[in-house]
Amino acid sequence: MSFIQVLDQGYVRLVDKMGSDLTVVNAARVSYAKQSKELTDRDIRLIRFLAREGHTSPFRHAVLQFEIYAPLMVARQWWKYVVGSAHMEGTGDSLDAWNESSRRYITEEPVFYVPRKDEWRSKPDNSKQGSGQPIEWEKGEAFTASLMEYIEQGLEKYQAALDAGICAEQARLFLPAYGLYVRWYWTASLQAVCHFLSQRLEHDAQKEIQLYAKAILQLSEAQFPNAIAQFIKKEEVK
Q1: 122-126 long-range contacts, Cβ below 8 Å, gap at least 24?
Q2: Which of 64, 20, 62 has the alpha carbon at shortest distance from 38?
Q3: Active site residue ranges
Q4: Fold annotation for 3-104+182-237
Q5: Residue 86, Cα to own-chain centre: how many angstroms?
Q6: Which residues contact 89 (CB under 8 A, 6 or more apart)?
Q7: pLDDT tens digits for 60-119?
Q8: 96 CB neighbour count, 10 Å cutoff
Q9: Mean predicted lDDT score pLDDT of the chain
Q10: Checking phi first, is residue 33 left (phi over 0); if not, alpha (psi -120 to 50) or beta?
């Protein structure tokens, strides 16, 4: 599996990957000029040790590349992990790459995330949590209809601006922003992916980005089953 549908129209696709669990092992064993040809129980114990003790540099020698299609509100939360990658890994240079489609250049049909009537959530009791329990479906139905109406108004103004000869990079100002789907490539070290997962799989993360994190986890653990299991386990205990 290399493709997982998320939300109503979003998705995560595994584009490419470099390395395997053995890559992590051999990156660590090179300190003693040793190399494993096949993954053994001893190697798995080494991965467990590296994750437990915080020896993270071997995890940076494996890389994953994803194509992601998500609402802008998810994309901008996600972007923080690219900005913070260099600080997290202590390398002075980010091991993350991000390339996003731009409405300066393309005018493909805008797509928006619209929560269903049973997907609207209430204010949280704790300010550290983004949302609370689902609201009554009657209220949700009204807000879904209101949001769709708002989007239609924005689309009409956007198209009118384009038809009047306004450039795409300015016409896009009329598009409602946070629910607008955007597409990007995210290339990251295995450590950076695990760091993202350890935080966005938490129960208090925004639900929408949790769903994307679960898709990233599912695609990643198929490629790095031992490394993902040990690293995520270590981060969650922490």
Answers
A1: none
A2: 20
A3: 200
A4: Gyrase A; domain 2 (3.30.1360)
A5: 17
A6: 56, 60, 95, 189, 191, 192
A7: 999 999 999 999 999 998 988 775 555 454 544 456 788 888 777 767 789 999 999 999
A8: 21
A9: 87
A10: left
